[in-house]
Amino acid sequence: MARAIRDLSQIKRIVVFNFVSVAIVILAWEILSRLVHSHYFPGPTDVARALVSLSVSGDIEGIKLLDHAATSIFRILTGFGVAALTAVPTGIVMGLRREIYESSKAVLEPLRFVPPIAWIPLAILLLSGYSRYIFLIWLGAFFPILLNTIAGFQRISRVLVDVARVFGGNRRAIIWKIAIPSALPEIMTGFRVGLGVGWMCIVAAEMIGGEVRGLGWLILKNGVLLNVSGMIAGMIAVGVIGLVMNEGLLRAEKSLFKWRVEVRV
Amino acid sequence: MSAEHRRKVKVRLENISKYFGSLQVLDNISFEVAEGEFLSLVGPSGCGKTTLLRIISGLESSSSVLIDDVPVSPMKHNIGFVFQEDSLLPWRNVWGNVAFGLELHNKLDPEIEKAVKNILEVIPGLKGFESYYPHQLSGGMRQRVAIARALAIDPDLLVMDEPFGNVDLQTRSIMQEELVNLHLKVGKTVIFVTHNVEEAVLLSDRIIVLTKRPARIKAEVPVDLLRPRKRFDSSFLKLRENIVNSMMEEV
Amino acid sequence: MALKKISASLLLVIVVVAALGFSVGYYVGYNAGYKVGFAGAPTVVRIGHLSADLHQVPFFLAYQKGWYQEEGIVPIRKEYLNGPSEMMAFVGGELDAGYVGVVPALTAKSQDADLVAIASSNLEGSAIVAKPEIRSVKDLAGKKVGTPGIGSIQDTMIRMVAKKFNITVDIRSHRFSDLPILLEKGEIDAFIDWEPFCAEAVVKGTGQVIYTSAEILAGHQCCILYVSGKMFREQPDLARKILKIHVRALREIKERSPDEAMKVFSEMSGRPLDTVREAWKRMKWEYYVDESSAKIFVKSLIEDKKIEPGKVPDVDAFVKSFIDRKFLDGVLLELGIAKS
To answer: Which of A87, A226, B36, C64 is a good FRET partner for C229, with 20 to 30 A between their CA atoms?
Structure first.
């Protein structure tokens, strides 16, 4: 009980601190914008106004902020789903069979280091429309999920495998009852990181032109129109959504994996 | 007391030798364990006790270990192993962990439920903690769960590898007493490894002393003391001294 | 046990989201090409254009006024930052028709892009805008000149100018909308861009027009209306409809209500009306694609190695295969417009 109260006041403290830091940033921003006094450096009030205007009456084509956000979110969810579906089984195979992982490194590692943005011109030429966005998101999300899955499987405790074996478990039992539950937290972390990277990719992918919907496009369009407040409003939307997704997954992780003892220093 | 154990032979080891590469760890070890007997293996650290246990329980292959005259295999036999280290599945609660062995033996749910409920009655201190997770339990509690898990499958053989090694002294004595009572109640064949001679004398019907690496059988000492045994009884202390001296020779 | 359920449900969620998103997204029309559906069902056409490009007002006008829908067409508008980007997307299969500069279109065609120019949108319409201190083209020697991108018609023209005046110029690619700002900030000394961005610098007073594209090559073709070769061959009626809409719009712009057109463009592009008016002065609207300037462009592109000479052994034949006049003849006749 006392612990619950202590935890609650700690949560309150964290929330308050966060609010305070946001307030400080906004204040500093306001002061800075007044000092610089340029059309290209709007203050928080201008951006707030742009946010409201974009939400209510939409951008220059009347497409509302919510539509843009929904489009981007839709894309990221699909791309992420495809990445998870491909990366997890591959990661399981590679995690359980080290040789497969080691021998595919020559192909995987170079691919991993090419940023998704560099794939954009190729993606434009070979793919079109929706599939192009999915591909670019997949590129960003695949590797974090894959690597985390592999790591999760490599880190399985020997003792637990022995436990399964001595109690009569066959290989299947070891995989399903020991390996996968053991690796699940790591896989979830991979999901969280992959989703974040994928989110950044989709925004970049939307900035290259084509579809006139999406947060990346909104930012670009406002840039073209020299509407800096609108641009920043779009960026804030991207950041906030990213934050929400990350926090959401973090919470899910925490509640699913209560059994992971956190070391408090 | 020994006369009672002239029952059928449950476990037989025949000329077990083990090499890791060119390093010999075990040298021609043979002995038998009678059904219901509590046998302890003592020896200096690093002598290979754990390897021997792994061979006995079928984790390392060998055709020279027989349980009920059948070469040992975790698939064929019910082997209850209590590890020294933390061996509970952290993502399962107490109930889930105790049920684990039964699951692996493909028992049906109603059977599992019955067995788990039963064993939680038998092992002291676990009732009421079914939904607790390992990280919420003390070291002693965790080992109790490990013992419960091993007993739940109604094992042919209970193997225990220094189970109280990581537990504090006070809990250790409590758990030793619990184990004595448990053995009296349940009557399983037990092979127990420890380097703590007092513990071995307290618990066992017979003690086998192993040499240092490569391990050979140095001595077989029956423990005829009446239970409940008192640590500071003269006969207890004498027996203990003998065994300790035997072990000291090895160092 | 609970863990099994959790991982199973996690997996299920991923599968469902992925599958749902994929199929819904695919069929809802993101990738929809044109199709002739059942009687009465609308035809979807993906039309590309350039951002805030005054040369492409016919498209803006028709789109805004809903003329596509009147003909039973659902237009999906796709916007690009310059001609070459639009052509890349076309090659990737993203467009059925569109408005683009004749230079990127010719370049793409030389690389086997399957498109046909069925009308012109405008001629000339670009200009070199320079800092106040720079008075003439000769003064551009060694200076930094911005263009909307390598492979755009503006980029090609500045190179032609450099050759003509025998000077070397430091050519930089930027986003079309950044060019006036970069001039203002002094990062570039001049730029060549499509209208209304030249007008923007003039109206702001940060630069002046020192050379128009008409002076570079009089009467040169600028933006064209194209359709995919597929549509041209398999759905000529649809191509004709798109052309008719374009001609209607051009007529409004040329003769009937240019003010209306200016207003629509200003709204859709977000450019102030007086900037648009200033830019309008340099605009020349024309129905037919000008073949001779197209040929000159091709030759220049071959010289600059933007087009492989092996790909275009016969420049005349190449340009002829690129342009179609027959549809336009028919539509102009139908709408009672004399050939201009």
So the answer is: C64
Give the start-to-end residue ranges of the domains of chain B.
1-77+156-232, 86-155
At residue C117, the pLDDT reads 96
Amino acid letter at A6? R
Whole-number pLDDT of residue B1 = 44
Query: Of C68, C197, C58, C196, nearest to C121 (Cα)?
Result: C58
Q: Which structural domains are found in chain C, ordered by start?
A: 43-123+221-334 (3.40.190.10), 126-216 (3.40.190.10)
What is the number of alpha carbons within 13 Å of residue C133 lying toward its C-beta? Answer: 7
Contact C190, C197 (CB under 8 A): no
Q: Which tokens is B136 given?
A: 């919420």
Residue whose entry in the numeric block shows the structure tokens 């690597």: A147
Average per-residue pLDDT for chain C: 87
Residue C31: pLDDT band with limits 50, 70, 90: very low
- Determine whether the interchain pair B91/C1 forms a contact, defined as Cβ–Cβ distance below 8 Å: no
Residue A175 pLDDT > 60: yes
Across the interface, of C94, C177, C268, the residue whose CB is closest to A128 is C94
Q: What ipTM was estimated for this complex?
A: 0.88
C21 touches chain A (CB under 8 A): yes
Q: Is the pLDDT of residue C25 over 70?
A: no
CB contact under 8 A, B91 and C3: yes
pTM: 0.78
Tokens standing for residue B90: 């952290």
CA distance to A23, C68, C248, C251, per residue, from C62 (Å): 47, 7, 8, 11
Q: Which CATH superfamily is domain B1-77+156-232 in?
A: P-loop containing nucleotide triphosphate hydrolases (3.40.50.300)
DSSP-derived secondary structure letter, A118: G
Residue B24 is predicted with a pLDDT of 86
Binary contact (B59, A166; C-beta < 8 A): yes
Stretch A256-262: mean pLDDT, rounded? 72
Beta bridge partners of B38: B190
Transcribe B40-54 into DSSP letters.
EEE--TTSSHHHHHH
Q: Which two tokens stand for residue B95?
A: 């109930």
Q: Which residues, 6+ apart, have CB-to-CB distance to C202 below 8 Å?
A: C129, C208, C209, C278
Could you tell me the pLDDT band of residue A115, with boundaries at 50, 70 and 90?
confident
For A176, name the nearest residue in chain C, comparing CA atoms only: C4
Mean pLDDT on A117-133 = 83
Confidence at residue A263, expressed as pLDDT on a 0 to 100 scale: 43
Tell me if chain C has a CB within 8 Å of the CB of A38: no
Nearest residue, CB atoms, A81 vs list C14, C93, C269: C14
Q: In angstroms, what separates the C-alpha of A243 from chain B's closest C-alpha?
A: 28
